[in-house]
Design brief:
This protein is α/β, with parallel strands linked by helices. About 25% of the residues lie in helices and about 35% in strands.
Length: about 260
C-alpha cells in the first residue's frame, strides 16, 4: 500500500517531468504511524546528530523527513530553533503530540515545498536520503535543501553502504519484532540496479488484522553520492561512519559555498 503525492517545484530550478514521490503506509497510515516509535525504540543513532549540531555550533536546524519528530524535539529541547518537514501527515500528528513539540516548527510537504529559510544545518536521518529513487529526484532534493541553507551551511545525512548488503538481514526471521500489541517483520521482494524493495507486515495481535506496506530504497555508492553533491553545488567536507553502525552506514557532511 502506497500513497502517491505530486509536489510543487521551486522557481530557482526547472521542475523535472513526471516527478512523483510516494509515502509508505508505515508512515502515512493513521493506524501505523503511532506504532513507529515502539517498533523502532532504539534511537541511539540520533545522538550522533545532536552531537554534530553542537560540534558545528548550529543554532538553526532543518530536519528533513522528520517522521514522528524524535530528533526535532531533542534538538529543540537543547535550545535550537528547529524546522521539521515530512510528507506523511499521520507521522506529523504523532510528532506534534510529543512533549516539547510546541517548540518545533512542523511543516507538511517535501523539500521543494519549503518556505524561505537560511538554516545553519539540514539533516536527513535513517533511510530518508534513500527514498529518492531516481537521480532526478535526488538532485532536485539536494538543490531544494541547498536553497534552505545559509551560505556556508551544512547538510548532514546518512546512507547505507551498498557493499555491506544490509538487505540480507531483512528476512522475516531476522527482522521480526513485537511491541505495543503488534508484530512486525520485513521480506525482500526485489534487488537490482541499486534498488532494494521489501514488504513490511504488521499484525495487530488482539484482532488478528494484518496490514502490509511496500517500500523501495536506493543504495548509492560513496562515489555516486559525492558526485551528486558536487553537481548540486556542495563540497563534501567529510564522510564518517555512523557510530552505532560502523561499517554499515556512511555519514556525509557537505557544505554550501560561503
Amino acid at each position: 500500500m502506497k500513497l502517491s503525492t505530486t509536489h510543487r517545484w521551486t522557481s530557482a530550478y526547472p521542475r523535472p517531468t513526471n516527478l512523483t514521490l510516494v509515502v509508505d503506509a508505515l508512515f502515512a497510515d493513521p493506524r501505523l504511524a503511532p506504532l513507529y516509535d515502539a517498533l523502532d525504540a532504539d534511537r541511539r543513532d540520533l545522538s550522533a546528530y545532536v552531537a554534530l549540531a553542537a560540534e558545528f555550533g548550529a543554532a538553526t536546524v532543518l530536519d528533513i523527513g522528520c517522521g514522528t519528530g524524535t530528533l526535532a524535539c531533542l534538538l529543540a529541547d537543547r535550545g535550537l530553533s528547529v524546522t521539521a518537514l515530512d510528507p506523511a501527515a499521520a507521522s506529523l500528528a504523532v510528532a506534534r503530540s510529543k512533549p516539547g513539540a510546541e517548540r518545533v516548527r512542523w511543516l507538511h510537504g517535501y523539500p521543494a515545498d519549503l518556505p524561505p529559510l537560511a538554516v545553519d544545518l539540514a539533516t536527513m536521518t535513517g533511510n530518508v536520503a534513500q527514498v529518492f529513487l531516481t537521480d532526478e529526484e535526488w538532485t532536485a532534493t539536494l538543490r531544494s535543501v541547498r536553497e534552505a541553507l545559509r551560505p556556508g551551511g551544512r547538510l548532514i545525512f546518512e546512507t547505507r553502504d551498498p557493499a555491506a548488503q544490509a538487505w540480507l538481514d531483512w528476512t522475516p526471521e531476522k527482522s521480526h519484532r513485537r511491541a505495543a500489541g503488534v508484530r512486525q517483520w520485513h521480506e525482500i521482494t526485489g534487488v537490482g540496479d541499486g534498488l532494494v524493495s521489501f514488504e513490511s507486515t504488521i499484525v495487530f495481535e488482539a484482532e488478528g488484522t494484518r496490514v502490509t506496506s511496500t517500500s523501495t530504497l536506493r543504495f548509492r555508492t560513496r562515489a555516486e553520492i559525492a558526485d551528486s553533491l558536487a553537481r548540486a553545488g556542495y563540497r563534501v567536507e567529510e564522510v564518517r561512519e555512523a557510530p552505532d553502525r560502523p561499517g554499515l552506514e556512511m555519514v556525509f557532511i557537505a557544505t554550501t559555498p560561503g
